[in-house]
Automatic annotation (TrEMBL):
SUPFAM superfamilies found in the cross-reference section: Acyl-CoA N-acyltransferases (Nat)
UniProt-recorded name of the protein: GNAT family N-acetyltransferase
Domain N-acetyltransferase: 3-163
PROSITE patterns in UniProt: GNAT
Pfam families membership: Acetyltransf_1
Organism listed in the record: Rhodanobacter hydrolyticus
Length: 205
């Protein structure tokens, strides 16, 4: 089995959309316009490809964006710098094979050289103890709860401290940015951005 984790490409979007909307009640449905927003704006948007087939994806956004998710905004009101995991989806055929942990290892590797916090939420209605346990064993702690709108579901808001960040900040980010090597590169966006953090790897509060 050949596994590749790579940045999403435009030709993946139809398959990503279909996979997202087959994800069940734990994943909020998307339309093509919403997915295009992530394609153009997400700081982290990678897919898993197994033997040439799309097996899953994960989307993450840095602080300071115009994303209107109430959970993203909750973190934005409380944390000056973070990467927010908006969603992770794994195809049914590839579940229970550790792909979620592989994605979380990859997104942690991306985040820990850029931000001090990795954040996300899990639904409490309905509660999925497997998902709650997964995040707890991966170092996330609950930092709050909220309801997603007057008739929305209750969520647990989670954050994970990234202890490597302080070392990276003092060693590289405060002195010109991350080294220019492929594994530290930002993903290429389909629209230009003037956000300096994408160039220097740091946003100073």
């Amino acid at each position: 089995m050949a596994l590749a984790i790579r940045d999403v490409s435009e030709h993946d979007l139809d398959a990503v959309l279909a996979l997202n909307n087959a994800g069940g009640q734990s994943i909020i449905a998307l339309d093509a316009v919403q997915l295009r927003y992530f394609f153009e704006r997400a700081d982290y948007f990678r897919v898993a490809e197994i033997d040439g087939h799309l097996a899953g994806f994960l989307i993450g956004l840095r602080e300071g964006g115009d994303y209107q998710s109430p959970n993203y905004r909750w973190f934005g009101e409380r944390y000056p710098s973070f990467l927010y995991i908006d969603r992770i989806v794994v195809a049914n055929a590839y579940r229970r094979h550790g792909l979620g942990r592989i994605f979380y290892c990859d997104v942690t590797s991306y985040a820990e050289v850029r931000v001090p916090q990795l954040t996300c939420e899990v639904f409490l209605e309905p509660r999925d103890d497997v998902i709650v346990l997964f995040h707890g064993t991966y170092g996330f702690q609950e930092v709050g709860q909220q309801r997603m709108g007057p008739k929305g579901r209750q969520v647990s808001l989670l954050a994970k401290e990234l202890p490597s960040y302080a070392y990276v900040r003092e060693t590289w980010l405060a002195h010109g940015g991350l080294p220019d090597v492929p594994w530290l590169a930002e993903r290429l966006h389909s629209t230009p951005t003037s956000d300096p953090r994408r160039v220097a790897g740091e946003r100073h509060a």
